[in-house]
Amino acid sequence: MITLDLTLPDTRYPIHIGQQLLGRADLLLPHIKHKKVALISNTTVAPLYLANLRQALENQGINVIPIVLPDGEDFKTWETLNQIFDALLQHRCERNTTLIALGGGVIGDMVGFAAACYQRGAPFIQIPTTLLAQVDSSVGGKTAINHPLGKNMIGVFYQPRVVVADMDLLDSLPERELSAGLAEVIKYGLLGNLAFLGWLEQNMEALRAKDKQALSYAVQTSCAMKADIVSQDEKEHGVRALLNLGHTFGHAIEAGLGFGTWLHGEAVGAGMLLAAETSRLLGNLSEADVQRVKAILEQAGLPTISPDLGVATWLELMSHDKKVSDGEIRFVLLQTLGQAQVATVPQDVLQQVLTGRFISKA
Amino acid sequence: MITLDLTLPDTRYPIHIGQQLLGRADLLLPHIKHKKVALISNTTVAPLYLANLRQALENQGINVIPIVLPDGEDFKTWETLNQIFDALLQHRCERNTTLIALGGGVIGDMVGFAAACYQRGAPFIQIPTTLLAQVDSSVGGKTAINHPLGKNMIGVFYQPRVVVADMDLLDSLPERELSAGLAEVIKYGLLGNLAFLGWLEQNMEALRAKDKQALSYAVQTSCAMKADIVSQDEKEHGVRALLNLGHTFGHAIEAGLGFGTWLHGEAVGAGMLLAAETSRLLGNLSEADVQRVKAILEQAGLPTISPDLGVATWLELMSHDKKVSDGEIRFVLLQTLGQAQVATVPQDVLQQVLTGRFISKA
């Protein structure tokens, strides 16, 4: 196990990465104030891992209240969030009761938001069970639910007390979800670490075969980069926006097709290629760079052709992006491969990208 | 106009108190980043004041989006909150769009919560239009909505950029609501300022006649005390809990009768008398002290007899209080008149209070 440390102005917390960590109550106990936790998971993950974790905590004399939610991005709504509040109140959970998120990004985002709002702030713990959640959403304190007009529109910044990323939990991860997680891993290479991109190109086969050593290295590298960026800019006033590479296009794909049609990671992957193509048209990337982005996405088993939403719909959906400022959509683009920047894009270039070679021809 | 300053670890903001402030766009402009604001009010307040404020802002070239919500504590729900989010997204409000709360405590709490959650945090301004909101809810950053199982159960701490308390807006305040606000004013005297309690006893008639000088002094004194306490303990880990004098009983009255049946201030007033009676039974207050509390509430036109919810229902409702810790209800009681403390109460004493002389006999 290795432990990274995320230090912020008001708090700091450990991110434990390794194997056989799910039964390790000792990693959680220092962060549980009262002898009561709400253990929140979904119908897919709960049958696999909830009983183990529950037993480990109950062995330490902790009262565990399990809350099992429906699975999927289309349940990342107020209605599901309210199921958490209902259960917490029915079980008389207090504002010092710790909430544990056991699941992927949707569970992590919702439990974090629920913890932030329950009695104005209960402690919470992230135990991510997907690669995507391990490398991205469980770290950094972004919590949210979706709104029909935009993804993650309703949420707050709220940090967990500890993150435990157990590679063993990825054994049960479907191939498609593994690929989706790899999109966010690739993102870190593209936006700030060209050497890591090279490592990924060399090790993609091992990653897709769930080689634990390779996965662990990929998660560590990703989390270390994320922790570094978040510690500089917790609330995304500046550099943190770079972590949104591929997300402006990606969120539009998710919302345009209906949340849950494409996985978040798939949409981000295709979105990163659109961002790369945009960067090429602006003169910053070469054709070879764009092909390299396309190739690594294909290696990861990710789609590279985005759906044809129609330019008007693309623009409408992207106009709800949280980076919009004074009415202008701001994109995370590539200055060079391995270095991202935030920029606006001229209308004609956008038009070209959104009708171009990486958009599906009906 | 006088200006108080609330200083917190991460932020500070002014609280302007005086007359003829609603048209003073100059008080708001330094806190509006973009030339766009969402001006959120309710069906009662909007016809009285929205147009004036809107005009004052539009004269400064600001694009004002009015959002008018239904009025009342029973609308302090997720459904109403979602009306705000819908409107913000439909009008393409950005995360730098300022939300202005123009209304009483319900509007202030909901707009604050909406601002905290909209795109993970938009700036907001409080313009309280009731005495209760001016002396209590608009200052200190507590935001929330109600849950059927408990008042203000879902919310966050989120501070406004500026608070503008204009005494002129109280001209339209119904007598019953003025009295409800006076309950929170009396609270400051009881919990920490005996001299102020004496002043209130002398000046209650002027306050109820809406004498602007008297109101302004009461609001200043209340806000100064609140600002002092909040600056010591923003997130209620300690001393801030004292501001909850009367609220554990009061919230139970509100929830037990259905939100909106008693006004919040009425419930807090009656709850303070129950807290005083509890304090007497514990040997801390004299009978004369309790009578003095009862008398000032009566002077303010407030009810002093609480509804008979039944002991079991009282306990059930109070067990959801946010101050509950390790299953024990913690009350704010009076150590002496003018000094509050947090304490637990033996079951037999609680039983006696909840069936005693300040509970309605059917």
TrEMBL record, chains A, B:
CDD domains cross-referenced by the UniProt entry: DHQS (cd08195)
Note on how the cofactor is bound: Binds 1 divalent metal cation per subunit. Can use either Co(2+) or Zn(2+).
Please list the residues that bind NAD(+): 71-76, 105-109, 129-130, 142, 151
Sequence positions that bind Zn(2+): E184, H247, H264
EC number per UniProt = 4.2.3.4
Q: Which HAMAP family match?
A: DHQ_synthase
**Which family is this sequence assigned to?**
Belongs to the sugar phosphate cyclases superfamily. Dehydroquinate synthase family.
Protein name, as recorded: 3-dehydroquinate synthase
Q: Which organism is it from?
A: Vogesella facilis
Encoding gene, per UniProt annotation: aroB
